[in-house]
Design a protein that fits this description.
The structure holds 2 protein chains of 2 kinds. Chain A is an all-alpha fold. Helix content of chain A is about 75%, strand content about 0%. Classes of the chains: A mainly alpha, B mainly alpha.
Chain lengths: ~375, ~300
């Protein structure tokens, strides 16, 4: 069914409306807290775009969101829900960091790509486990990925307090749980005098590659086919279980890459405050928000990530100037998610109207791009 | 080391705190059981718990009235349940993802309110232990079961009540019918929407109390993300318990006992890195989900929105 330009515009504007609604609710909350919402949002915008440095920070923050979001596009298109971005980022970062701290003799041009690959592999490994459990043991991936997050945090804490701790910290009484710093030669090159690094460009290129993967390759087609309907995919001779594993594996891999880039492009070491968000900045969750906002389309996820990166950077300024805790952004992100998934209701309505007006009323509700059932139950293989 | 673990006082300590730690799991998971039996997967439990925990903590801090505190957690939980019900029942939104939205909302808002309204670490006087006369004097058993706070007793009382409601009452029958075959239930004149609203709001209320049981029962403080995944484990427990209150009780006890053991091992200085010990309940959740999914069957209409054909 060919969509008209009006429907297309409607689809694109829906998340924008959802976000405006979330910001409006946020404004009401600010008023209730005794803060002028215009001043607060003004500080936010200024913090995110007010100077070249601020803009660079926005893009730095957008990078992990985009990478995690790309993985989310793959997973959600395959109708598997990956909430495990946090853990996958951590494991990817650990893999990449181990490489960088071990092979200090390698030249940077060789080590950096290898480290990215290690991050990819680490995240893939952490994503494949819940994928495998879902495909073969019918374990709800939402729950298993959340548990995998908690496990990954503890692995990070354990490694950074023990085996991977910076030898210099061992001498000190403070024993800050962090690794040694990466060699200068291993750091991702910066693009400008700001903190903006090559990772952002890399992520944008990957967004186009993911688009090609999902829509122009057989492998991507299969993942989407399984996402549309297990039944139809199986009928078409597609191995449903294998593709469920693949979708989660790839989704994890991109999050793992995000973790590796966070180490090689921003922090140059791993450090933990005991929580997942201490390392990830909650990018594992916020990447989901960005991908949903981007209509689960890799290209759409690019501006979406920049938008949510701006929110995060601007929130710091808002906290400094207006004393509004940056937790407001988490709240708004939650609202955006709720409003975006709720707004699909109006898209379905419109689709339904179209179908009934073209005399194609089979009584079946139209299948949305992501099935509305969260795919908790993998049908038993016939 | 092992002998230390096995000494009578330690064993009693482990069991008593295990019984106590099961409380938030029980409230949240029993509430979630009702929702899921009617076909709604509420993944916002964690957010509802955090909001309930903060509401109860704040009201207890201001008024020192603990029942008013619990009541405020009930109201907050009910409101979040109402919103969840509207989004999933009326708008037919993807339940898994909207639940994550409610989680983020609760996580952010409880933190925001705490920082704006309280700001510093404060403790409240939570519910005191109630020694049940006579029973609490029984050696060992008395200490384990009969000297807990009131929210603990209520949590355990909920299990048979939930079983009775689901199994023996008309409303329970309606809930199950709506969760298994909403079309059939609808054609028999049962309002699918009304039943789902009821169960999801009730789930919200119980999640709110679950949060309160942490902030004014077990820990008597509030801190950002204080539930740290407990609400999600509660959802997993519903799967583990095969969507039955008694199964949920078994799961909750298993978890809290493992947690309690883990805490005591740290207290006794048993040389297992604490990070590894903290991991145990999460690994256990995955193992248990893996083992249990082959022997139990989910309600047929779970996560499927219902739309009346006009």
């Amino acid at each position: 069914m060919k969509k008209g330009w009006f429907s297309k515009l409607f689809d694109v504007l829906m998340p924008v409306f959802a976000t405006l609604a979330a910001l409006a609710v946020g404004a009401v909350m600010l008023i209730l807290l005794g803060v002028n919402p215009f001043q607060a949002y003004g500080a936010l915008v200024e913090g995110a775009f007010g100077s070249p440095n601020a803009m660079a920070e926005t893009l730095v923050k957008a990078t992990p969101l985009l990478l995690v979001g790309l993985g989310i596009c793959i997973a959600f298109r395959g109708n598997v829900i990956n909430i495990g971005g946090e853990g996958q980022m951590i494991i990817g970062a650990i893999f990449a960091t181990i490489l960088g701290l071990t092979f200090t003799g390698l030249p940077g041009w060789l080590l950096i790509p290898l480290a990215m690959l290690m991050g990819f592999i680490g995240g893939a490994f952490w994503g494949a486990i819940p994928g495998f459990l879902k495909a073969y043991f019918n374990v709800n991936e939402i729950l298993s990925t959340i548990m995998m997050n908690a496990i990954a945090v503890q692995i990070m804490n354990f490694l950074l307090r023990g085996p991977m701790i910076d030898p210099a910290q061992l001498e000190l009484a403070s024993k800050i749980p962090q690794t040694a710093r990466l060699l200068e030669a291993f750091r991702l090159p910066r693009l400008t005098p700001t903190r903006l690094h090559l990772g952002f460009l890399f992520a944008v290129i990957l967004a186009f590659l993911v688009y090609i993967f999902l829509w122009k390759t057989t492998l991507g087609y299969r993942i989407r086919a399984v996402g549309q309907s297990h039944h139809a995919a199986r009928y078409a001779g597609i191995n449903v279980k294998k593709n469920i594993v693949l979708a989660l594996l790839l989704s994890g891999a991109f999050a793992g890459l995000a973790g590796a880039i966070q180490v090689y492009g921003v922090n140059y070491r791993m450090i933990t405050d005991g929580s997942a968000s201490g390392f990830t900045g909650s990018a594992g969750f916020n990447g989901i928000v960005a991908a949903l906002f981007g209509q689960l389309h890799p290209i759409g996820t690019i501006p979406a990530s920049i938008f949510f990166g701006a929110l995060l950077v601007g929130a710091n300024k808002m906290q400094r100037v207006m004393q509004v805790p940056s937790a407001l952004i988490t709240t708004l992100n939650g609202l955006v998610v709720i409003f975006v998934v709720s707004s699909e209701y109006f898209q379905r309505r419109r689709q339904k109207q179209r179908i009934s007006s073209t005399e194609n009323d089979s009584g079946e509700p139209p299948v949305n791009e992501i099935e509305r059932t969260s795919g908790v139950n993998v049908e038993a293989e016939a | 080391m092992i002998t230390e673990l096995l000494s009578a006082t330690v064993l009693v300590g482990i069991l008593a705190s295990g019984i106590r730690l099961a409380t938030p799991y029980l409230y949240a998971a029993i509430g979630e059981t009702f929702g899921q039996r009617s076909g709604v997967l509420n993944l916002g439990v964690e957010g509802q718990m955090l909001m309930g925990a903060f509401a109860a903590f704040y009201v207890a801090l201001i008024t020192e009235n603990l029942w008013l505190a619990v009541f405020s957690a009930v109201i907050v939980g009910a409101l979040m349940g109402l919103a969840m019900a509207f989004v999933t029942v009326n708008l037919g939104a993807q339940q898994g993802i909207s639940g994550i939205g409610f989680f983020l909302f609760g996580l952010g808002l409880s933190d925001l309110l705490f920082q704006r309204l309280v700001g510093t670490v404060e403790t409240v006087k939570g519910f005191p232990k109630i020694e049940i006369p006579i029973l609490s004097n029984i050696p060992i058993i008395g200490e384990i079961f009969f000297s807990q706070n009131i929210l603990v007793y209520i949590a355990y009382a909920l299990v048979p009540i939930a079983w009775f409601v689901l199994k023996k009452t008309t409303i329970g029958l309606k809930i199950r019918a709506v969760g298994e075959n909403p079309e059939a239930a609808d054609s028999l004149g049962v309002s699918v929407a009304a039943v789902r609203y009821t169960t999801v709001i009730m789930g919200g209320i119980l999640s709110g109390i679950a949060g309160a049981s942490l902030s004014i029962g077990l820990l008597n403080v509030f801190q950002q993300n204080m539930t740290s995944g407990l609400g999600f484990i509660a959802v997993a427990l519903v799967y583990f318990g095969g969507w039955r209150p008694l199964g949920v009780l078994g799961g909750a006890l298993l978890f809290s006992m493992v947690n309690s053991l883990q805490l005591w091992m740290q207290v006794l200085g048993i040389p297992i890195p604490s990070d590894i010990a903290v991991m145990l309940p999460y690994i256990l959740t995955i193992v248990v989900l893996t083992l249990s999914m082959s022997r139990v069957r989910a309600p047929s209409a779970l996560t499927k929105p219902f739309e009346r054909e006009d």
